[in-house]
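#struct-queue
[09:14] JT: dropping the first one here, sequence first, then the structure tokens:
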Amino acid sequence: MNTSPVLTSIQDGIGTITLNRPEARNALNQAMRPALAAAVAQMRDDPQVHTVILTGAGGAFCSGGDIGQMLDAGQAGLPWRERIRSLHQWFPELVNLEKPVIAAVDGPAFGAGLSLALAADFVLCTRRARFCAVFGRIGLVPDLGAMQLLPRIVGQQKAKELVFTARTVEAEEAKALGLVYDIVEDGAALQQAALALAQRFGQASTAAIGMAKTIMNQAFELDAHAMAELEAYAQTMCRGSDYHQDAVQRFKDKQPLRFDWDRQP
């Protein structure tokens, strides 16, 4: 059995990152952080990978930070601040990965696990999935980017409620809030659904999706003029791509496009 805290695999253009501490419900410990950074970099740098699935082993996604290690680390001030800041040496790479990222969530996505789910473009979950900004239960504030990402998905007022109350959100409510893209029945169906969704991007332009994602991720920070400039730059780059030229030729020849979501089985 592979005991690495994070497992990676690549098959048919789909990269999978698996949090692999099932005995701790995949709690994020010190060993997992550099392993996650390396896994994200691997997916970023492999030109064959068009879509990434982020999931957890053993019927859990991620139960949050490892409380045991928090206690062992003590309550030091500045060193603890640097420990939290170090998370943002790799987490933005996941948020801004220029490929579609699908989080496949079974069981708890609590604390830092919620943040990891929020980093994905699409969240699929089972009916037993649960989401919680649990930090308030132990007198902490959300970290790992949750205070930036959560309001963008559910709105400021609902984000404040979820953070202030630290209450658990079940799968159906999570979908209603926009946290979840779709719900499946169980873990086996979850993996199948994640793979099926990932496969649908197999013939898409990874470059175009990547640039669109990078720009849209800035939509709440930049003004309309800056967004328009980024749009113009990205469109110019895409117009010159082999992918676009092939699509134009296919249109002229009345041939099916490589990527047509509505016509895919």
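[09:21] JT: and here's the second one, same format:
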Amino acid sequence: MKARLRRLVGLISILAVLTMAPSACGDSEADVELVLDYLPGGIHAGIYSALGEGYFADNNINIDIQSPTSSADTLRLVLSGQASFGIAPIADVANLVAQGEDVQVFMALEQVPLAALMSTEAIGVTNPSQLTGATIGVTGIPSDEAVAKTILAASGVDPNSVEFITIGFDAVGNLLGQNVDAAIGFWSAEAVVLELEGETPFVFRPDEYGAPPYPELVVFASTDTIKNRSGVVQRFYDSLAEGYAFALANQEAAIQHLADNAEGIDTFFSNAEFDKVEPFFLGPNGTFGEISDAGIRDYLNWAASVGILESVPENFVTTKFLP
């Protein structure tokens, strides 16, 4: 009950800010390309609600939502100027900035890590402390092992005792087949599939085992866009805030907007995914997109200390578009 009241207060605060915001009617229409982090799903329902409910149009934004072939594709399109905005894992964007690329994060899509270590009831691993000498599946992305080692070490397991094997993005198949004792995957997606397959997943998030809390997915743009199209960035953020306020208050309609405007949507799965992430769309202050300099600095320092980042980037985030 308390959680629902907090979310209601958050929605009211979002709507109050939007009501007080200056009208976009005096702004010229802007063509905006948004590249998602992956195929559209329940986590993106607020974006498609902003489209379906006309919030982008109300803010004079002509939006083109694109699906990437990979997160590297999202980064490439924004860097090359072929897309205005991108959604990508925070580590990928941080590494770009650390390498000297001129991009900046201006909002979070959600508030907690989605990549986590997972096992199942059938395998019998209900706590990471049971993973001494285990076989752990990773996608091949360097951050996977760092995340797993953080969780293992915090659970009293020597990370050197486990064997990491590369399984690509088939955590579900390998967990169902019991080819591994645990695997790295997105609990917002793979854990949902496991449940739909009749399995009981156990999820171990890094922020519950020593890592600071951080958003997995962030929205970013080139520093040129941030500087020279700040009005468009603000209107884009305002549209998304409205879209997610609608989605949190009208989940069934939001998933229908997703199905109406994106191909290949399984509404049952998308609703289940939205259910998983729903408690984490709003930040501690009840604001969608919330991101803080201090919180991100904690993440960057931790990520560099465990080898996810080669160095700590400067000027990684701007909060000027948030209420």
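[09:30] RK: nice, looked through the second one.
[09:31] RK: The two ends are 26 Å apart (CA to CA).
[09:31] JT: good to know. Residues 230-249 form the longest helix (20 residues).
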